[in-house]
Design goal:
It contains twelve helices and no strands. The chain has helices at 2-9, 17-20, 30-59, 62-68, 72-109, 111-117, 135-150, 153-177, 179-182, 186-210, 212-236, 243-252. The N and C termini lie far apart (56 Å). The mean pLDDT is 79.
């Protein structure tokens, strides 16, 4: 069960492929290249993660890995590469983390624009750019700093995993509603919904048992943002726009 609970938290490690879709409009031939990029990223990550995990566990006792915590891989490199290995792995981890942050900020830089265009934020955010109006970038960076100061690595991972899982749950539910248009396998989409719901439920159960502060933070955020969304809808009377409406709107402009 420990391995299962760990998988629910570090589900986050495999969610990077979702960020690929954020760049869909900037990718040449997206219908072909976006699925290819997703499959390749999952394959490459698996080919990297599995051997690293095997080497780490085989090279250092589990107790020592647990003791090292955030720098476990660097510690695992010490026995056969010494202090140079520790430094090498640490620098590699910094580059890896930087690339992940960069990908997240790339998606977040224009997130305010994307949400505003679809009617989910006020029109003032309806500006697409990287440097001249980067509200989405500031929001993403600001929220990241706040959570980094309030929680440890495991807590942040759990909160992020929960957020991704909730997004996937609603994305899959939406896919089921559009199944006739997408012509996807209904049984496969339904199976993925069951699996994601199971992972989310296990994550919530584990957080309730081990860290109720994280558990309550997840649900307080969900309820707070849902309340803000509901209030915004009622106050502004603003509705969601379909993709066709968005395209028509900007073609006219």
């Amino acid at each position: 069960m420990g391995a299962v609970y760990a998988a629910t938290i570090f589900f986050l490690s495999y969610t990077g492929f979702g960020l690929i879709t954020n760049a869909s409009e900037d990718i040449e031939d997206p219908e072909k290249n976006v699925p290819r990029a997703i499959y390749l990223s999952l394959l490459i990550v698996t080919l990297v993660y599995v051997p690293i995990s095997v080497v780490a566990v085989g090279n250092l006792p589990v107790e020592e890995l647990i003791k090292a915590k955030e720098y476990a891989l660097a510690e695992a490199a010490k026995p056969f590469l010494g202090s140079l290995g520790f430094t090498f792995i640490s620098v590699g981890a910094l580059f890896s983390t930087s690339s992940a942050i960069n990908a997240t900020l790339y998606g977040g830089a224009n997130i305010a624009y994307a949400l505003a265009v679809k009617g989910e934020l006020p029109p003032v955010f309806e500006r697409r750019s990287w440097f001249s109006a980067p509200e989405g970038l500031y929001i993403t960076a600001g929220l990241g700093i706040i959570f980094a100061l309030l929680f440890n690595i495991e807590g942040i991972a759990a909160i992020c995993s929960a957020a991704f899982l909730l997004v996937y749950i609603f994305a899959i539910l939406s896919h089921l509603r559009l199944i006739d248009e997408t012509r996807a396998s209904k049984s496969l989409v339904a199976f993925s919904l069951v699996m994601v719901l199971a992972i989310f439920s296990l994550l919530m159960y584990y957080q309730w048992r081990t860290d109720q502060r994280v558990f309550y933070t997840i649900w307080i955020n969900v309820l707070a943002f849902a309340s803000i969304e509901l209030a915004y809808r009622r106050l502004t009377k603003r509705g969601f726009l379909t993709r066709q409406q968005i395209m028509s709107k900007y073609e006219v402009k």
